[in-house]
Amino acid sequence: MELLRSNLSRVQIPEPTHRIYKHECCLSFDTSRSEGGLFVDMNSFLAFGKDYVVWNYEKTGNPVYLHIKETKKSGPEDYDRPLKKPTLLAIGVDGGFDNNEPEYEESYSIVILPDFVSLPFPSVELPEKVRIAVDTVLSAVGAERKEQVAAWTAEKKQISEHALTLQQIKSGIVIPPSGWKCAKCDKRENLWLNLTDGMILCGRKNWDGTGGNNHAVEHYKETAYPLAVKLGTITADLEGADVYSYPEDDSVLDPLLAEHLAHFGIDFSSMQKTEMTTAERELDQNTNFDWNRIQESGKELVPVFGPGYTGLVNLGNSCYLAATMQIVFSTHSFISRYFSHQSLKMAFEMAPADPTLDLNMQLTKLGHGLLSGKYSIPVTKKDAATGDAKQEGIPPRMFKSVIAAGHAEFSSVRQQDALEFFLHLLDKVERGSNNRPDLDPSRSFKFGVEEKILCSSGKVAYNKRDDCILSLNIPLHEATNKAELEAFNNQKAGKGAEENDMSTDEIVRPRVPLEACLATFASPEQIHDFYSTALKGKTTAIKTTGLTSFPDYLVLHMRKFVMEEGWVPKKLDVYIDVPDVIDISHMRSKGLQPCEELLPDGVPEEVMESAQPVANEEIVAQLVSMGFNQLHCQKAAINTSNAGVEEAMNWLLSHMDDPDIDAPISHQTTDVDQSSVDTLISFGFPEDVARKALKASKGDIEKATDWIFNNPNASSSDMDVSSSNSAQTPAQSGLPDGGGRYKLFGIVSHMGTSTHCGHYVAHILKEGRWVIFNDSKVGVSTDPPKDMGYLYFFQRIDG
């Protein structure tokens, strides 16, 4: 006890602002349920496993720790009970996802390092300061759990401000108990009853063309009648009814719903549930991933354990992160940087005071967690559905918190695009490497791209940029099974059948060779309204694209989200025939040839200023038809450089809450910020071009960079014009390079109508066999979906 009293100055009583970690080690995935328990530093409130707490003592000198050990209660009945269906999109709360976990009992003690002197807790003999400090730690919600609950618990529905003052029209309308149909079309599902006038109208059109025809929301815009209830969700339990407030743009509670329904003769007590509510559809997507082919459902999954075969716990729509990180940590560059050449202790010693906020530390922690094999062991409890041995997996909470810091989407619980996350990860890793290529594993994915623009005058311009992915369009006209497709479509038309009514085996999908996708990328493309400095006017130019270097790892992104006839966005239901080995040697660019003449420098100022961004009317019209605001749609098209409906809609969904979203579009030129000019200059662009680009893009650096690449005649130097004796080689630019032959080693597959919903799964070639990584499930793949990938990862074959 005297030893503890002599160290009281190193004990803090937590303040409300302190982040308290007590559920997971900051350096490993050890928890209080691990064999050695967890040690909470009573000065910094960071938690450490038994093997790592000494490192913290040596680094900080903090000697006093709260030891927490959880021991499973005996009795199989505690955890062999059946799973309960969730009613709330939450974990660890009443009605949330039931993990079917056994119950544990906690024991505590005070431990003083370095000799691990242990004192019992609770004990009246402990100094009051220690007792208060420990009680505060134990009663506080841990920082890990705070983030988990904040991410998972869906917002509870609020009472609508319009419910209590709703004026209902005495129209004499009586709503029957069934047999409803939209008043403006033939839709008989997804129908909404307006609680003011009794109109029954269909819901919003989904972005993939499914759903309703927007008649309900259009009716609100015409009448301003605020509340509607979804027919088919009304039962005796009125709280379960799906009531939507258009002015509040959210699902709400209507405490007077019984009266509002009675106004139209509806006896809710006798009605049956026939439709899913919005929340139930979201839950259904999170709990039922029955996409057979990609998940290899129905096949016997032989689990795999050991180093490199550790699963990742789904934190709530985090499968995009899990699939991406499993493949990233299968590359030599990431393995070397964060595992084989960097120990946990080394990363901890370099980390700041709080290692939970350090990207290098958390990547090292994740790397060791995935690759050491320490956590890839069978648990005693077997999978209830299959009877197979399973592993618990590791929860990448601290890594997700760091990598998503400051990013509104990745820090949320919403599903994200695996491609966007992959690019975000590489950017963060590159920034964290302090401009030291030898410490930057992201460079193994980077390659040079060169665009050659041939003017109708016969003269040329060259652009260069670096990239980390090849984004490929899918040329459906190159399908190799056209005869089977035609027969299938004729058969379908003859029967009047929809694909939704057919089994998966009956549907014939186009099969497009990967070679055709690569050829499309490299094929010539017309540029209309190209300003030629040789002709001193606008003309049509031809752009061809090649690679100046071949990366260690080549990532191919399949652009499966396209526009079909009538400008309806659609996910292509298509197979890509991907060989195990590809050769892209023919895609290497040749640079400026001796017979080619460069376009003259300089574009007139008036041409620069006339190049103000204008929204593509077809993109705007399609978004407006989905129910989005006209002004918002115009901004989305402009801010995505009219790249397409999918890109514009993703921008819309990410910027709906921007404070200036309703501000008018302004094309007025303003003085540019000198710091922005300096930033562009640091990228290698000349000052005059940087100023023109910033003026044309209203000061946005990212858009200004795009503008420069889209206006190669702004000056000679902004294009990074290459010639045989002046161009940088890949080695000089720090990019990896080698031969053009690659071997497929990883696939990220996506299931769902949008990259922002559904589920992601990874398949990785390890030790000569394909392995499926489906969140925490890891097993031998018997039928890897090579033809259904969203992202394909190839490794260069040296020699």
Automatic annotation (TrEMBL):
Q: Where is the active site?
A: C319, H759
Q: What PROSITE patterns does UniProt report for this protein, alphabetically? A: UBA, USP_1, USP_2, USP_3, ZF_UBP
Domain (USP): give its ranges: 310-797
Q: Where is the UBA domain?
A: 614-655, 671-711
Residues the entry annotates as binding Zn(2+): C182, C185, C202, H215
SUPFAM superfamilies named among the record's database cross-references: Cysteine proteinases (SSF54001), RING/U-box (SSF57850), UBA-like (SSF46934)
Q: Which GO terms describe its biological process?
A: cell communication; protein deubiquitination; proteolysis; signaling
Which reaction is catalysed here? Thiol-dependent hydrolysis of ester, thioester, amide, peptide and isopeptide bonds formed by the C-terminal Gly of ubiquitin (a 76-residue protein attached to proteins as an intracellular targeting signal)
Q: Does the keyword Zinc apply?
A: yes
Enzyme Commission number, as recorded: 3.4.19.12
**What InterPro entries does the entry give?**
Papain-like_cys_pep_sf (IPR038765), Peptidase_C19_UCH (IPR001394), Ub_carboxyl-term_hydrolase (IPR050185), UBA (IPR015940), UBA-like_sf (IPR009060), Ubiquitinyl_hydrolase (IPR016652), UBP13_Znf-UBP_var (IPR041432), USP (IPR028889)
* Region ranges (Disordered): 715-735
Give the keywords, sorted: Hydrolase, Metal-binding, Protease, Repeat, Thiol protease, Ubl conjugation pathway, Zinc, Zinc-finger
UniProt entry tagged with the keyword Zinc: yes
Biased composition range(s): Low complexity: 715-727
Q: What GO MF terms are annotated?
A: cysteine-type deubiquitinase activity; zinc ion binding
Q: What biological function has been recorded for the protein in this entry?
A: Recognizes and hydrolyzes the peptide bond at the C-terminal Gly of ubiquitin. Involved in the processing of poly-ubiquitin precursors as well as that of ubiquitinated proteins.
- What's this protein's name? Ubiquitin carboxyl-terminal hydrolase
